[in-house]
Write a structure and sequence with these properties.
The complex is a heterodimer of chains A (about 240) and B (about 350). Chain A has about 240 residues and is an alpha+beta fold. Chain A contains 6 helices and 10 strands; from the N terminus they run αβββααβαβαβββαββ. In chain A, the strands form 3 sheets. In chain A, strands 5-4-6-7 form a 4-stranded antiparallel β-sheet, sandwiched between helices. In chain A, a hairpin with a 5-residue loop joins strand 9 and strand 10. Chain B is an all-alpha fold and about 350 residues long. Chain B has 13 helices and no strands. Chain B is flat. The chains are: A alpha+beta (about 240), B mainly alpha (about 350). At the A-B interface, helix 1, strand 8 and helix 6 of A face helix 3, helix 4, helix 5 and helix 6 of B.
Chain lengths: ~240, ~350
């Protein structure tokens, strides 16, 4: 007769799978989306014979202006960060470096005014005086973070258009910034989004361009993402070629 | 009686016989041959029983062979887990989603089945132990792969599943490696959850090692409550996860959660580490726990080396630095010899 502990061990793989299904059910299938992203917002993970899993990674560009200032002090304090120490104080760097990063929700603008400001800034930096050609722009940069909140629903109310804004869970931190000729200040940092890696179901993976490890870019494609109640995404569609 | 107790009895019988041989060669007063014969017959019968029921090693060569078999078992299990993971990654895209889920759930169950069958067929349970490690690896693969398949957000709760699986696999047959993995998962889960409860990512448990240290320290007093064969594993794993974070906290500035000056905290933890090193070694000597003695001695050595490097490496002539290290090592050896003589005197 099998020991009870062994019976429990046999049950755990099934129990875990059921827990995953329950979590997926709780996430629901009627969430926010679909939001269409291109190879300019997500990067295709390389695939080889030994690694056939189809995945894309969300990527973003920092907004123009001083680093970390797109996160307002009020929004960072609402997350629980402390701003008690003057950034000019002697121990300010240590004080702000020691603060732990926190979970939040971030709204990204997709190929909107924030991205256009980045393009304009690069043109000025190059001294060309003209906006760069599209093929000169690196993929994964047209997502630009513009807002954050502790409450995802509050963000969704502020940015209701799924075609222009993507909302996802994230990890944010604070830091002390100091540049030559400028007073030190405290700003935010977007450390990661959760999940950043999005796996493509095998039923759709055939449509995703294959990128070898030695290739920098994949062929143009679009991926449609929907985020459920738990802010976990699923891939609704993938198409090759430029978006309509 | 368990296997460890049986092996200790077999070792004592072997030592007794070797001592009798030495006494005879040295011409010591002879013991009545009839008594010796009766004792030898009793011991032979006892050894046969122990070998049949617990598969004890009756000679030093057999013991070395067993150690080799254990190492081969662990290496084989690790290679098998790597093969399973690599196989899944290769064939993933050729499988439908239901088939992917079925294989992921089925792999640890298949390994558990093999473990149960092997354990009932082979009394040494080396193959069963190998299958148990493979089952743990397959279960970890299932949790990670399913989470990624459905794009779940990060959560520490999968660690609770790892812990439950490792412990339930380990307990019936007292399998050490699954138990060690399960114990580690319990510590990691407690440490990560402590952060997640306050909306901090659980991964901060790695950057702020106090959470791991306190979680392991909380569980350490419970280690005597597990089965006797697993208690040394519990003590060893938990002590490592108390001392390693302590070493980090005593060496690196700014990783403590306590909101005091980082330099002050580092010195405070150096004092704690020094006391802990001495305390662990003393406790291990008094209670006779060889695994704690080994861990405590290794920790003390690492701590001393890191302190010496931190204090002197930059400015001291290198020959002098190594000379002082050698003097400390010799002094340490002398102190342990004195401690051993005192323990022998007490015994």
């Amino acid at each position: 007769m099998m020991a009870r502990a062994h019976v429990a061990a046999f049950a755990l793989p099934i129990a875990f799978a059921l827990a995953i299904f329950a979590s997926t059910a709780a996430n629901g299938r009627d969430g926010r989306g679909p939001t269409t992203l291109t190879e300019r917002e997500v990067t295709v993970a390389p695939r080889t014979d030994d690694r056939s899993i189809a995945e894309v990674w969300l990527g973003w560009s920092e907004p123009v202006g001083r680093p970390g200032t797109w996160m307002s002090r009020q929004s960072l304090e609402a997350l629980g960060f402390d701003f008690d120490v003057d950034p000019s104080a002697v121990d300010a760097a240590i004080y702000y470096r020691r603060q732990l990063s926190r979970r939040a929700f971030v709204a990204f603008e997709i190929n909107g005014p924030a991205w256009e400001r980045i393009v304009a800034e690069r043109a000025v930096a190059r001294g060309a005086g003209e906006p760069p050609r599209a093929e000169q722009v690196q993929p994964g940069q047209r997502l630009v973070p513009v807002d954050l909140d502790r409450n995802a629903d509050a963000l969704a109310r502020r940015y209701p258009d799924v075609r222009t804004h993507l909302i996802t869970a994230a990890v944010v931190g604070v830091g002390r910034f100091e540049f030559p000729g400028d007073r030190p200040y405290v700003g935010g940092a977007l450390i990661n989004v959760d999940p950043r890696r999005i796996q493509i179901p095998v039923e759709l993976s055939r449509a995703l361009p294959v990128r070898a490890p030695t290739e920098r870019e994949a062929a143009p494609f679009t991926v449609s993402l929907t985020y459920g109640r738990r802010w976990e995404p699923w891939v609704a569609d993938i198409r090759l070629g430029l978006p309509r | 009686m368990n296997k460890d107790a049986a092996q200790r009895r077999a070792d004592r019988i072997a030592a007794f016989r070797a001592e009798l041989d030495d006494l005879a060669r040295e011409g010591a007063p002879a013991i009545d041959p009839a008594v010796l014969s009766a004792v030898a017959a009793h011991q032979d019968a006892l050894l046969q029983t122990l070998a049949r029921e617990f598969d004890v090693d009756r000679t030093a060569a057999a013991r070395r062979m067993s150690r080799g078999m254990q190492i081969a078992s662990v290496l084989g299990a690790a290679a098998l887990v790597a093969a399973i993971v690599s196989f899944f990654y290769r064939i993933w895209d050729a499988l439908s989603t239901p088939l992917q889920v079925s294989l992921l759930v089925g792999a640890p169950i298949a390994a558990l089945t093999a473990m149960v069958v092997a354990g009932r067929v082979e009394k040494t349970r080396y193959v069963a132990a190998l299958c148990a490690i493979v089952a743990c690896g397959a279960f970890v693969l299932e949790t990670i792969a399913l989470g990624r398949m459905f794009n779940l957000r990060e959560s520490p709760h999968f660690l609770a599943f790892w812990a439950a699986f490792g412990l339930t696999v380990a307990f019936p047959w007292r399998l050490r490696i699954p138990f060690a993995l399960g114990t580690f998962a319990v510590v990691a889960y407690l440490a990560a959850t402590a952060f997640e409860l306050f909306s901090f990512p659980g991964t901060h448990a790695i950057e702020r090692p106090e959470s791991i240290m306190f979680a392991a320290a909380l569980l350490l007093p419970l280690s005597p409550r597990v089965a006797a064969e697993l208690a040394p594993v519990a003590r060893a794993v938990l002590l490592v996860f108390v001392l390693l974070p302590l070493l980090a906290l005593s060496s690196v500035r700014g990783v403590s959660l306590i909101p005091l000056d980082p330099g002050v905290m580092r010195i405070a933890y150096q004092i704690v580490a020094a006391i802990a090193a001495c305390g662990v070694i003393a406790y291990a000597l008094v209670r006779g726990h060889p695994e704690l003695l080994a861990i405590g001695s290794a920790f003390a050595g690492l701590f001393i080396v890191t302190r010496f490097v931190d204090w002197w490496w930059e400015w001291m002539p290198k020959y002098l630095f190594f000379l002082i290290m050698a003097a400390v090592a010799i002094g340490w050896l002398w102190a342990l010899r004195v401690a051993r003589r005192r323990l022998e005197a007490v015994a």
